[in-house]
Amino acid sequence: MKNKILILLGIVLNIGVMSSCKKYDNPPPVFEDIKDFNGLQRKIIVISIDGLAGEELQKAIPTNLATLQKHSKYSYNTLATSSNAAGWVSMLTGTGFSKHKVSADNFERTDEGHDEDHTDPVNFRNVLDYVTQYKSVTTAMVTTWEELRDYTRNADYAPKVNSDLAVKDSTVSLLSRVNSLGTIIVNLRDVQKAGEDGGYTVNNAKFKAAIAKSDEYIGNIVEAIKARKNYEKEDWLIVVTTNHGGSNTDAKNGFTIVSQPNLQEYELKKSGFNPSLFQGTTARATVDQDNGLYDGGTTKDFTVQMDVKFNLTTQWPGFLSKGSDLRGQSMTGWLWLQSGNSWGVVFGGTQNGGSGKTQISSTSNVADGKWHTLTMVVKTTGSPNPTARTVTIYTDGVENSSGSILANRSLTVADALRVGHKYVDNTGNNLSLYTANLSYYNVALEANTIKDAVGLKDITKHPNYASLIGFWPMDEGSEGTYFNKAPGGYNMSLSGDYKWTYLEDDYAPGTEPVPITAKISIPTATSDIAALCLYWMNIEILADFNYDGKPYLNNFELEFLKN
């Protein structure tokens, strides 16, 4: 009891120091044993094999990992992250890169382009901090990476080690002598180093040997867990994963194995179609910095296309834009808006000395609860002084209407390319739609090309694929990034009140259907690791934690919660 009072005092003092920079008060710490219904105390270990792609592991899964998989929920397709540090910060904070913005090896946040709401940067707490605050257990981080060790300097135990062998030995030592250990994170890096010399593939003998050695170390660690003097009173969750597959500059999807003796073997997959719901005024996806790539300019030809499913009939909310708000006649750039059961586009050049609002409308009914492919083509004649500039819009490959935007002059604007609500004369706040397969070409597509390509499932087969500078399928199903699949361009970052949804077999026209493999869809991501840690330690994930990660074990509680 004395120790718990001292811990509580330390936390109160710590909260007092931090209160000036926190937006919300945290609930009081909870000091009770973390026990299942069978009376066992829950504990968790997370082991990351950095640089190991799920695809490569699946080709030759070694002995100890195969044994863990037999009693696990697992995935060989955990969503890739952008860098070594980005993967670790997502793993530790439960947030995707679009929130934490950490990619450099010094673990410092990088500022990337637009922040149209001018919000203050947020530094997210790591999972060991929450465990220390809410539970009377000790924590550990064991890694050779000095910067990562410093990032988690709040760990109770953080031995300085210089090899994966030393990582293993230190982990085994901690498990054997520290009874209070409740959450431990272990980082194995030799696989990543081996990949740097010959490739991140099992065809590289050094890489394959490093995987086998890491598996041996994991076997040693599992043995050490089972040899703990209180093991029969403990309930260990063993998580083996990676910060990402492949190299730091060419990250691949990773893997996750979440193992516990009572779990039945089950592969976690993204099943069916998993788009994001854009609802209300805050949900959006933006290209934070495009270096002028999507700038409409004065003479540029371009084509923008997106699959859309409107959930209701409403008046004039903007839902796709590379432009400013529309206020009366004042507007610069372009935006798409819903107009009752139809849609249209608005152009303007107010900020650049051109004319204001120029609206071109469709009469097609698109608010019928079905998917539709919407296309906008901008065609310019003459350069550097254009003599004509025309916009043509299409619904499901059929031309609707066209009009001149020559008087608007330049469409250049600081606002980011955005999917989601855009202000239109204080109207249309009741936006609700799904989007998919946003494509941006730096040419004006011909009418027959547009018609013939509606429903094209493989974008690489498009006749103008070489002119594609942005293609976002928008079906990741997890975290906060739309990954760009075009030959050039940038990812999009999600923010606000967006919601990933499971539409089963209700696919967008340009999305390749896949078999429905489960009643639930569980795409995995590195940010899930922090959520799983808190879930297993019986720590409630509060809204102000701002987690992207999902504690998906809550779908399988009947397997491990025993009366």
Features:
single chain; alpha+beta; eight-stranded antiparallel beta sheet; 13 helices; 25 strands; Alkaline_phosphatase_core_sf; ConA-like_dom_sf; Alkaline phosphatase family protein; Phosphodiest/P_Trfase
What this model shows, in words?
This protein is α+β, with helices and mostly antiparallel strands and 563 residues long. Helices cover 21% and strands 26% of the residues. It is built from 13 helices and 25 strands. The strands form 4 sheets. Strands 10, 12, 17, 18, 19, 21, 22 and 25 form an 8-stranded antiparallel sheet that branches. It has an 8-stranded antiparallel sheet with strand order 16-15-14-13-20-11-24-23. Strands 3-4-1-5-8-2-9 form a 7-stranded mixed sheet, with helices on both faces. Strand 17 and strand 18 form a beta hairpin. Helix 8 runs parallel beside helix 10 and helix 9 packs antiparallel against helix 10. The radius of gyration is 26 Å and the shape is elongated. It starts with a helix and ends with a helix. The N terminus is likely disordered. This is Alkaline phosphatase family protein. InterPro entries: Alkaline_phosphatase_core_sf, ConA-like_dom_sf, Phosphodiest/P_Trfase. It holds the Pfam family Laminin_G_3.
